[in-house]
Amino acid sequence: MNDSASRVAGDAAGRPLLEVRGLEKHFVVKRTFFGRPLTTLRAVDGVDFAVQRGETLGIVGESGCGKTTLGRTVIKLYEPDAGSIVFDGVDLSPLSFEEMRPFRRRLQMIFQDPYASLNPRMTVADIITEGVREELAAEERKALAEKMLGVVGLNDDHANRYPHEFSGGQRQRIGIARALAMEPELIICDEPISALDVSIQAQVVNMLEELQGELGLTLVFIAHDLSMVKHISTRIAVMYLGKIVEVGESYDLFERPYHPYTKALLSAMPIPDPNLARDSRRIILRGDVPSPTRIPTGCRFRSRCPYAMPVCGEEEPQFRRVAANRFAACHLVDGVPMEASVASDSLFHSDSVSS
Ligand code: SF4
């Protein structure tokens, strides 16, 4: 069976394109005089999720919750400390830099800051084709750069210019063109719009959505702006202090949040209709997000949760199925028994997303 046939066979069997289990990425921020770890920052602290081919998984949470570290660890810009990252049936976590080479094309990332992520000394054409520099002749690279500029709505004559000649939105388009030039299957979009003017954000999100449909891409869309995530995502995972606390289909999660943290995030979203806004109730969370170097025992949200109970300090709530296509980790939420055959599906991928 050739490569693409086996991929299709895997999809037909319902295998996710990406399956992350027990992923951890910790950083030692302080050591003893003898070099032993003294303070460890648990940025990603046991994350599980799966993404089906062709879907968009939104990952939301406040600044510092570990979203960006998660994205970077999934594509192995950071080496994971524990867990597996199974991409198209292959566990990437133990692979060396060299062994990762065939996968780098297939897994791309769009970075948050379009000002810092483009080399100011390179022309746009060189930036876009940097990843295929060794494979293509100069003429082919030029043609590819011009084609990709067209795909992201820029002109051919932008190819020989430098990043400083472009606006933030245009630079982000160049970053997207660079990712697309590699013909990826999965793109991690790390807050791709947060550095852009509000007027430009919707344009970039709409463009990503269109490209996803046209090119059959799979996206992981990391953001703190819930309204944008709702717009683009098939499903949403809510992250708090290095862990995912709730997963659900996008519109269902907005309609019916289970986890108190999700409820608080949703209640803080601006409501455009003044009548609805007047009747809405905002949940004010106590205090700040604890430091990832001092994660509370039991439920990590308990220091801010308005519903915290004694058990919340004693036992970490299990992440479990709470309704069809819905998963949450909270002692308040009753779990729904799962068939043994669906237990392996408990990595929170939708029953309804087709492969
Ligand atoms: Fe709140 Fe307890 Fe649920 Fe954690 S487990 S979210 S502290 S009610």
Rg, nearest Å: 21 Å
The structure class reads: alpha/beta
Looking across the biggest beta sheet, what order are the strands in?
6-7-8-3-9-10-12-11
The CATH architecture category of the domain at 3-106 and 184-249 equals 3-Layer(aba) Sandwich
Query: Which homologous superfamily in CATH is the superfamily of the domain at 3-106 and 184-249?
Result: P-loop containing nucleotide triphosphate hydrolases
Task: Give the uncertain stretches in residue-range form.
Answer: 1-13, 338-355
- Overall 3D form: globular
Taking the sheet with the most strands, its summary is:
8 strands, mixed
- Helical fraction equals 25-40%
DSSP strand count: 12
Number of helices: 13
User: What portion of residues belong to β-strands?
Assistant: 15-25%
* CATH level 3 topology of the domain at 3-106 and 184-249: Rossmann fold
Distinct small-molecule ligands in the complex: iron/sulfur cluster
